[in-house]
């Protein structure tokens, strides 16, 4: 049985331009100054309350799950990563208290923090490849029609409950700000196709579409 590789405690990054882009808030927006002031006040507390964790495990894709061009039984590396639940709980409280500016900012900042963990994951992936003498031939995300089955697969393979994750009745992860990913492994140790490609993503409304995360 393959061991779970984990990485915790590294600081996240939050970029103002990304947060405001996700909020569709520009300097021409009427509420820009309000959002800007609130953002500056929230930045350090938000970074401090994030609890970033990354878990990777080498395994085989089970039968019955369709994920891109991956084949059942193919050797893969699955990943689960999160910024924790504190920031989402904070955002929920803000909305409940009708502080919508804070609630929207916290949610967008949490998304930005989660995306920033791609850099930490890349470092972990490169270490894994060096140690195993393998490469990465592709990156895959759950397709909508298979999302429930893949979420359960990730939860079980990466010992979700033991590592502080929960899976709701609707197969959604708690913490909410959690991401999953599958990497195809190859014997070609020089291959590192671990970057995100928007063409294979079904989230067409994503404001980050056409953004490349990893560079070879």
What labels would you give this structure?
5-stranded antiparallel β-sheet, disordered C terminus, 18% strand, 5 helices, alpha+beta, single chain, 216 residues, two-stranded antiparallel ribbon, NADH Oxidase
Could you describe the 3D structure shown?
The chain has 216 residues and is α+β, with helices and mostly antiparallel strands. It has a single domain (5-200), classed as NADH Oxidase (3-Layer(aba) Sandwich). 37% of the residues lie in helices and 18% in strands. It has helices spanning 16-22, 32-49, 86-96, 100-132, 147-157; strands at residues 5-8, 53-60, 75-82, 135-140, 166-167, 173-174, 178-186. It has a 5-stranded antiparallel β-sheet with strand order 1-2-3-7-4, with helices on both faces. The longest helix has 33 residues, at 100-132.
Ordered list of secondary-structure elements with their pairings:
Blueprint (H helix, E strand, L loop, with lengths): L4 E4 L7 H7 L9 H18 L3 E8 L14 E8 L3 H11 L3 H33 L2 E6 L6 H11 L8 E2 L5 E2 L3 E9 L30
Helix pairs in contact: 1-4, 2-4, 3-4
Please provide a brief summary of the model.
This protein has 216 residues and is α+β, with helices and mostly antiparallel strands. The chain has helices at residues 16-22, 32-49, 86-96, 100-132, 147-157, and strands at 5-8, 53-60, 75-82, 135-140, 166-167, 173-174, 178-186.
Which strands sit side by side, in order, in the main sheet?
1-2-3-7-4
What oligomeric state is this? single chain
Text of the CATH class:
Alpha Beta
DSSP summary: helix tally: 5
The CATH topology is NADH Oxidase
Helix content: 25-40%
Outline type: elongated
Which residues form runs of ≥5 with pLDDT under 50? Answer: 211-216
Integer average pLDDT: 88
Note the main sheet.
5 strands, antiparallel
End-to-end span in angstroms?
A: 30 Å
Total number of strands: 7
Order of helices and strands: EHHEEHHEHEEE
**Mind telling me the C-alpha Rg?**
18 Å
Content of β-strand: 15-25%
SS class: alpha+beta
Q: Quickly give the CATH architecture.
A: 3-Layer(aba) Sandwich
């Amino acid at each position: 049985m393959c061991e779970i590789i984990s990485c915790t405690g590294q600081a996240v990054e939050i970029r103002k331009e990304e947060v405001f882009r996700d909020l569709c808030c520009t300097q021409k927006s009427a509420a820009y100054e309000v959002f800007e002031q609130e953002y500056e006040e929230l930045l350090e507390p938000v970074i401090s309350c994030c609890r970033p964790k990354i878990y990777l495990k080498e395994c085989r894709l089970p039968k019955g799950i369709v994920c891109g061009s991956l084949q059942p039984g193919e050797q893969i590396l699955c990943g689960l990563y999160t910024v924790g639940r504190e920031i989402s709980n904070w955002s929920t409280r803000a909305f409940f208290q009708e502080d919508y500016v804070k609630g929207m900012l916290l949610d967008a900042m949490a998304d930005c923090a989660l995306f920033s963990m791609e850099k930490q994951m890349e470092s972990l992936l490169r270490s894994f490849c060096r140690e195993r003498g393998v490469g990465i031939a592709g990156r895959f995300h759950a397709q909508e029609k298979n999302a429930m089955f893949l979420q359960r697969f990730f939860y079980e393979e990466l010992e979700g409950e033991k590592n502080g994750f929960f899976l709701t009745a609707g197969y959604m992860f708690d913490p909410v700000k959690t991401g999953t990913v599958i990497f195809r492994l190859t014997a070609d140790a020089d291959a590192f196709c671990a970057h995100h490609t928007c063409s294979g993503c079904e989230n067409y409304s994503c404001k980050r579409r056409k953004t490349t995360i990893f560079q070879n």
